Amino acid sequence: MNRVTRRFRALPLRSRLALLVAAAVAFAVAAVSVSCWFVVRNKLYDEIDDDLQASIGSVSRIEVAAALGACGQAPATGPLGPRSDSYVQIVRSDGEACPFAGSAGTIKVADADTAMAKAPQERNGTLRTGQDSDGDPVRVLTTALVVKVSPGEQYVAGDSALVLGISLNGTRRTLNELALLLLIVSGVGVVGAGAAGLAVARAGLRPVDKLTEAVEHVARTEDLRIRIPVEDDNEDEVARLSRSFNSMTSALASSRDLQQQLIADAGHELRTPLTSLRTNIELLTRSEETGRPLPEGDRKALLASVKAQMTELAALIGDLQELSRPDVDQHAGRAQVIALHDTVGSALRRARLRGPELTITADLRPWYVRAEPSALERAVVNILDNAVKFSPGGGAVEVVLNDGILTVRDHGPGIPADELPHVFDRFWRSPTARALPGSGLGLSIVARTVQQSGGEVTLSPAEGGGTVVTVRLPGAPTPPPEAVQASR
């Protein structure tokens, strides 16, 4: 059985479908054919039984005497010749059969016949299937022997029973022909069902073949631009699968394009600090090799430049690592309920150290959100770093947190309206800010972190100059009960 199952599963899908359709049709046709055969058989037997019941009647004393005189002998020929399919005989209580003249033959005596002969008045007529003396099948009715004495007088003969029979050769021949016909029709139906199932399977699986070819093409060539045509009004499973495949390849193509763009942008951004590092290190190395030391001021400036470039490289690599983490891995299992006002307060302390000459004011109302603590704090730090970086000396930065809305306003040069749509793109930097330190990834990290926390972030020009960063995060002014219990 397991071997057959394995071989069946090894067949192509269309062959399995055709076999299943053929098997289902074969089972249905077989059930219908068998049922039809039995219905016809029972109907024919019922008609024979009705004929036997209708032929019951009384017989004359002369016929009885003639039959009894022929006991043990072959039936004599009647005036119209022997009947070909009817049997009439008397069975005595000792089991001896006495055929009537014109009977088709002698029916083999059964126990029911002798029981009827011994007690004819205590039993009703019985029907059975028996055999004649030649072994041919006969439908038999055994009943009491009623002898007609005169037109108005008759009696039941004791010690004898009347046996009537009709040959079943014609009936069984009809049933055999019907069985052969049903077998032929069933065979034709099964073969036709198999062919139709194969044709339907081929037609139904044609879109699957196209999908398979497309997948094989993608696996062979890594060409993600291939698409499977789908009719707009088609909503079956294959169409849904094709649409899903097209969506998947589009997403993969977009992801690969973004990855290639990220690699290209990262290479471009890394080239500048690496070139500067290489130049400064070569100057220091040449000074050591030639034995002509650089002036102390120049040497300190070179070392400070190397240190600054190393710091910029470290920040850039950290930002790239943050952006390269998958979204699922980024957030799964790390989100927890945190106090946003405490996170903003911690980021403010770092911002005041980086811009001691600025006036940074804060109005923070309690607000609790569900997010990854380190990622959210880094996002807030990036926002405040931008505000500190672009604020003029002695300027002010205003930070407000109220009802889950965090706003950071600086009084810097602001962002032109045509550049606002690009501020969250990776490695994008305003032409006026390219001379300042930074990788162009800070706001990309902010947007990603806020979106993962279920919020949104926007940048807009501020009245009177500067920029306003607005972050909206879902949450509540009080922590949920489970967070309070966990803190205890």
Could you list some keywords that capture this structure?
rod-shaped; disordered C terminus; Beta-Lactamase; Helix Hairpins; 4 domains; single chain; 5-stranded mixed β-sheet
What does it look like?
This protein is α+β, with helices and mostly antiparallel strands and 488 residues long. It has four domains: 78 residues, no CATH class; 111 residues, 2-Layer Sandwich (Beta-Lactamase), CATH 3.30.450; 88 residues, Signal transduction histidine kinase, dimerisation/phosphotransfer (DHp) domain (Helix Hairpins, Orthogonal Bundle), CATH 1.10.287.130; 161 residues, Histidine kinase-like ATPase, C-terminal domain (Heat Shock Protein 90, 2-Layer Sandwich), CATH 3.30.565. It has twelve helices and 13 strands. The strands form three sheets. Strands 1, 2, 3, 4, 5 and 6 form a six-stranded mixed β-sheet that branches. Strands 8-10-11-13-12 form a five-stranded mixed β-sheet. Strands 7-9 form a two-stranded antiparallel ribbon. α6 packs antiparallel against α7 and α10 runs antiparallel to α11. The longest helix is centred in the middle third of the chain and has 54 residues. The protein is rod-shaped, with a radius of gyration of 52 Å. The C terminus is likely disordered.
Which residues sit in consecutive blocks of at least 5 with pLDDT less than 50?
Answer: 78-83, 328-332, 484-488
How far from one another are the termini? Answer: 62 Å
Please give the count of helices. Answer: 12
Average of pLDDT: 78
Oligomer: single chain
Strand content: 15-25%
Structural class assignment: alpha+beta
CATH superfamily of the largest domain: Histidine kinase-like ATPase, C-terminal domain
CATH architecture of the largest domain: 2-Layer Sandwich
Structure summary, number of beta strands? 13
Q: Largest beta sheet, briefly?
A: 6 strands, mixed
Helix and strand sequence:
HHEHEEHEEEHHHHEHEEHEEHEEH
Fraction of residues in H or I helices: 40-55%
CATH class of the largest domain: Alpha Beta
- How would you sum up the global shape? rod-shaped
Integer-rounded radius of gyration? 52 Å
